Amino acid sequence: MPRSRFTAARLVAIGLAVVLLIAACGTSTVTPSARTKLTVGLGYIPSVQFAAFYRADQAGYYTAEGLDVTFQNDIDANLVPKVGAGNVDLGLSDGTSVIPAVSQGIPIRYVATIYAKFPSIVFAKATSGIATAADLKGRKIGIPAKSGSSWIMLQALLGSANLTVDDVTIVEYPDFGQAAAVSQGAVDAATGFDNNEPVQLETSGQKVTVLRVDQVTPLPGPGIVAATTTISAKKAAVAGFVRATLKAMNEIAATPAIGVDAAVKAVPDLAKNRDLQLAILTATIADWRRSSDSAGAPISGAIDQPGWQASLAFMTKLGLVPKPVTVGDLVDPSFTSGS
Q1: Is the backbone of residue 60 left (phi > 0), alpha (psi -120 to 50) or beta?
Q2: Structure confidence by residue, pLDDT tens digits, 74-105
């Protein structure tokens, strides 16, 4: 009898352990070996502007989608070909890069909007006398290079005042030193990003005027791009990445400090000036929503296809579309709602 009681108790314990093990397996995340690996290219320099990606990674949102994500940083001109060749699974790029790339045969698609507003702008000191695009006539304008999104934006902005680049003096700053040039008076205005140079100048006590291109030509802002082969081979993973990133974006939009914390954890040097990082992130969050959206509107990642059509027409007019393409060749709206 003692032996029988011992055996029965042992069986009950083993059974309970099995039940607990099954229950644990049912609630666990995907094992590391079963996760889909994704290499994701962000901008040139790690920054608080990428807080949503850092937050989604650190909070386990990518892991919950069955993903193993690795970030890389590179300039847009290098990133797009890498995505097209499959060397990088996903990247962050805007319409001014996607449209000519696809036109040249690089097989990529824009799958989700991150910046609903185009962040590339022209900025000047408030004391410069520059208040509209027409005021740029005869002025010195700093720009990193006569290419890319800033160059296209500048042509659109000047065109809105019946001006061309021949009506201004272009000064190139390949080291991205145009903000210092504006501050020091070496140029009258410069191209930049609304969540970068103007914010830094304002926090240093210099009032700034910002000229935007949004109402002239709705150029598509940076969003997630993928190769057509990646979309075919890893469609569920791409969808999971988009969902997890949007979850983090909405969370940060509600509580920006969460984003600053994530950025500081990813890039410890950012902790040296948290107030500046919060100001940059606040400006970034404003770009995640369209101008017509309410302050608390959900961030959906939806693709503005009419806006893409307008941008395609404008860039074709500038001679930047070597071979004809359609919006359907450029975007894949299946990963977001409302596209």
Answers
A1: left
A2: 777 789 999 999 999 999 999 999 999 999 99
